[in-house]
Amino acid sequence: LVNDEGVICVSLPIGHYYFEEVTPPSGYTFDRYPEGDADAGKIITRYEFTVTGEEDENHPCTVTVYNVRLTGALTVTKVLKNADGGDELTTEQEQEEFTFLVRFKENGEYGGKSTPLASGETLTLRHGQSAVFESIPEGVEYEISELEKDGYTLTASSESSGVIGSTGRSAVFTNTAKPIPMGTIVVKKEIRGA
Q: Structure pTM?
């Protein structure tokens, strides 16, 4: 009954009918009634139509079923810490910018709260900052890599790559400041005379 374009073609006698969607396709959910409608916010599963007998090959009775693609958010967060375990960061450390390369398999452009970012572009974050990409279609594969920064050791997030789900993904990149190399000083005491 379904052709290559996903169209179901059937012949029906004159009358009133409805098409009921039982399960949306993977990665999608049911459409909802719009605001202002008596059923606003409720899911739409039933699509009513009438066959009048005036339809022909060029003007068939057409029923269109709408689905909404599921989406999730991707959050990228930067955290800095000191090698000695001290929580206090210097002003210089707090101002350090770290660069991330973000790739999406579908090569789309996805919006953050400020600016959209296309696949393959970079973004910069400081300690404590996050970039949030909202409404990425469920099932889109992503990969985030941080460019090396002198003076820091990177611990990449376990979610630095993966697949977007409806619950979203959160990638936290932690950089540990390398300890400042210490030299050795030798002090000698020399007594002269009495």
A: 0.68
